[in-house]
Amino acid sequence: MNHYIQREISDHLLKLFCKEIKTMPRWDQMADVIQLAEKEPSFENIRYANFLYHVIADLLHTVKLYWFEYIDISKEDFDVTIVRHENILNQVGIITSSPIKTDFENIEHFKQLYLGKSLEELNKNRKVYEITKFQNWISELDKEKKADDLVVIENWTNTRTIEENYKSAFKNVLNKNIPSVTFERFIERIKEFQKNPDTSNKVNIPKKNKEGFSSLTLEDIFLEDNGKDCIDAFMMTKPPLLTSQWKFIGSKYKHTGIICSWIMHLQNVGIIRSDLNRKKLALILNNSFRDFNMGVDGKTFANSSKEYDLNFKNQLEKICSDITKVKQGKKG
Predict the structure, then answer these.
(1) C-beta pairs of 263-269 under 8 Å, 24+ apart in sequence
(2) Where would you tag: which of 108, 205, 251, 263 has the fewest CB atoms within 10 A of its CB?
(3) What does the alpha-carbon distance between residue 127 and residue 67 come to, in Å, rounded to a whole number?
(4) Helix 4-17 crosses helix 27-39 at what angle (to 10 degrees)?
(5) Are 80 and 101 in contact (CB under 8 A)?
(6) 58-75 residue pLDDT tens
(7) Backbone angles phi, psi at 74, to 5 degrees
(8) Dihedrals phi, psi of 102, to nearest 5 degrees
C-alpha cells in the first residue's frame, strides 16, 4: 500500500466501512490501480489490484432478495394492502413486514390498476428485487440524509460503470494464487497496516550481532530478482505460512522445517547467496519473520521435512513460476 492511489482507495473504503460515506471508490482510480499493476508489476502492486477486485466483487454480490405481495384490495374504500417479503441469502426463512395500506385519492387511477383483478392475478409474475452488499451497507445512511440530486446521479453512474466494467478491466492482472478477500477482511488489513506503518517486508537486522558480521536484510541475500517473490509465495500456500507483514502463522513444529527446506532449495539453485552458512541464515530468518524462531545454531536446516516434500515444494515452485509469468507478461 505504498502508492498514493492505493492509499486513496484504501482510505475511501475505510470511510465506507465506518459508514462515513456511501459511495464506491471512483472508477478512474480503480483504472489507475490496474494500470499500475500492468506497468509496474511488483508483487505488492499485483496483490493490491487482486485484493481490490475481490473487494469490489464482494460489495457487488447479491445478499438479499425482496418482493411485494398484495393481501387485500378494497374496492369500496379504494385502497390496497401489501406486505414486503425479504429473503436474506444464506439464511433460513423469509422475513415478512407488517401490512402496509395505501389509499388512492385518484379513484380513476385505482380502477385502472385494480378493478376486475383478483389477488391471484396481481401476485402472479411479481418482480423480485436484488440488494447488493454495498446497497445494504449504505441503507442506513440513505435514511439519515438526502444527498444532492447531482451527487446521487454521479454516484449511481460511477457504481453502474464499475458493475459493467470491473470484471473485464481486472482480467489481465488477476492471479489465482493470490487469495481472495472480503470487504471486511480487507479493512482488517488496512487497520493492521495503520497500526504498524513502519512494518514492511524488509526487516533490518541490527548493525552488529553476536556473530560480528555486518548488517544484512533478507533481501540482501538474494542473487536473483525474483528472490523476494520466493518468500512472498508463503502467503499463498495452502495453508499460508506468512502474512503480508511476514509474520509466521504456521505451526512451530510442523511448518518451521518447511521454511528451512525451501530456503535451502533457494540456496542450492543460486537464488540465495552460497557464502552464508546455516548459522547466519538462521539469524537472518529469525529477525526477518515475526513470531518465528528456529534457534541460533542453524541445525534445523539439516532436518528433512516430509511435509515439505509431499505438500509444499510443488506448491511453492508453481506459485513462484506463476508470479514470474505475470511479471514477464506485463513487461512484454
Answers:
(1) 263/301, 264/301, 265/313, 266/227, 266/230
(2) 108
(3) 6
(4) 140
(5) yes
(6) 999 999 999 999 999 988
(7) -105, 105
(8) -120, 125
Q: How far apart are CA 271 and CA 66, in angstroms?
A: 57
Query: CA angle 256-258-264, nearest 5°?
Result: 105
Query: Do 269 and 185 touch, CB atoms closer than 8 A?
Result: no
Query: Across the strands, what pairs with 131?
Result: 64
Q: Kindly report, residue by residue over 100-147, the tens digit of the pLDDT.
A: 998 888 888 888 888 888 899 889 888 999 999 999 888 866 555 555
Q: In which element (H, E) is residue 20 found?
A: none
Q: pTM of this prediction?
A: 0.56
Alpha-helix runs per DSSP H in 27-148: 27-39, 43-60, 107-114, 119-123, 133-144
CB 282 within 8 A of CB 292: no
Alpha carbons 37 and 327: distance in angstroms, whole number: 9
Answer for the pair 221, 213: CB distance below 8 angstroms, yes or no.
Answer: no
Domains of the chain, by residue range, sit at 4-61+135-195, 62-134, 218-331
Of 305, 232, 230, 237, give the one whose Cα is nearest residue 267. Answer: 230
Q: Pairing mode, if any, of strands 100-103 and 62-74?
A: unpaired
Q: Report H helices in 149-250.
A: 149-170, 183-195, 227-232
Q: pLDDT tens, 138-188?
A: 886 655 555 556 667 888 899 999 999 999 999 999 998 888 899 999 998
**Burial class (CB within 10 angstroms; exposed 0-12, middle 13-18, buried 19+) of 217:** middle
Q: Which residues pair with 320 in a beta bridge?
A: none
